TrEMBL record:
Residues 225-235 have a biased composition (Basic and acidic residues). Residues 225-255, 452-520 are annotated as: Disordered. This is Chromosome partitioning nuclease protein ParB. SUPFAM superfamilies: KorB DNA-binding domain-like (SSF109709). Residues 458-470, 478-496 have a biased composition (Acidic residues). Residues 497-508 have a biased composition (Low complexity). It comes from Acetobacter pasteurianus NBRC 3278.
Amino acid sequence: MTESEQWRGVLDMREKGATDTEICRAFMVTPAYLRGLMLLSQIHPPIIAAIDGGIGPSYTERNAIARTPLERQRDVWAEIWAESADEGSDPADYEMSREDAAHFDWSDFVRYLDQVELYARDYEFDDETAKEAGVVWEEDLFGQGGEDNRYCTQYAAMFKAQQIWAEKTRPEGTIYLQSNEYGEGIAPDGYRKVGSWEMERDGDIPAIWVNPRTLQIQKGRLRELGEQSTRRTESDALSLPSAQNPEKPKERADISGTGLKIIGEVRTQALREALAAARESADPWDLIGAFLLALSADNVNIHGDNTYDPYGAASERDRAVASVFPEGVLVRDPAVLRNAALEVLCSFMNCEVSMHSGSGLPAQILGVLFNADAHMPTMAFEDFLKTYSKPGITKAVQAEGLEEKPTGKAMREALMAHVGEKRWVPEPATFATGIPAWKAKIKKQAARAAARAQLDAQTEEDDEIDDQSSDMEHCDEQDVAEADEETLTPEEDVSADDTSSVSETTSSHTELPDDPRIPTQLAELARKMPEHLEIIMV
């Protein structure tokens, strides 16, 4: 259904007393979509036809059009298509084609609706320019005396007059630019617009354009990008590529996006096979270079990197990779690789207590690897010792062979006096305390892996049993069918005695506990509660 057909269906349901909720359910649309359909009741019919044809205005533009009286929409539509309508027909009823839509801008139409009265006193162009652009002035009889009360309701003509006037009055050496839908001038190729905050330079080129929203002539400056590509002519004018010229259509790439995706998948497979082949012979320095390179990958995100710059400056990882892969090939210099690896580790590995940027237990194990305990400073200072509870500071002083004091403050003072200038690091602060936690973590991971392997094996075994059971059922059905064909004739029937024997056989099968088709828990329940539960195999 087209939108207009949906709209007429909504009106029909409303006449029959349906609520908006019922209508939304019937049409399977949201309330917002329903409100959009109701805008059609306030839109000129040829515009509705354009919407049904897929060449109509956007939802935002529809809102603006619907706010304008239908009479105004009709008048503007007739003015726009006066030359396109057939002779003798009303241009207000003209329905635009797809060829017309290619050169039609709905945003201009909306602006045309909004700017009903454009007064001559707000614009500078002369009567000759107005006549050239097709501006038709009307007199505001209720305007204030002593002012120019001429106005025009033709937005397109006024816009054209402003463009012609801007071309006529532009100073020598000034470039006229086309504008975009936001009212900004479009810089030609090889140039950029100079911002109002930038200092003016000698080589800047003045430019003017007409803002399509306000119809005001605006001024700006252009600045050349890179090498100078334009030269002054004999008349001291500039020859620039025109912004009016349409850009050449982009040539199709040799390989499409789908092809590049396939290349990526094939490369990934080849990379993984190459890495697997190097497991026994990979050079340790190559591995260090590989890990440095991997840390700079697009899919790697590291929190807590103190060299990261949100404004795009190179981080320590970027600098390290650039030093060991300066031309895309690894520099196998042990000193360079060693220095780069340690710099990168220093940039983000930390022992801070943080859920987001802290490195956690691996940082402690890294400290054990490089004997970081030997570099720990003394911890016998007031700010740290204040963090101890009274039982904690009691244990600390007793570990140093000191007697317990009545207060925590006294024990802190006694500990600092006892340590003096020596280095004191409590055992909980050492890196070595992470080893038991690391072992427990590895043990837990191994247990999880074993449990998962066991679960996978059990699942695979159950699947095999199910497959065998399915095969057995298929075979049994086939055997029974063959036996029936051999022993029964159309005149033969099964007697009551035979039926009882079949039921006895069925119940005897029910008592079999090893039938794979019977869940174990269900069989146990039937065995414990025979008076309440009976399993019958059909």
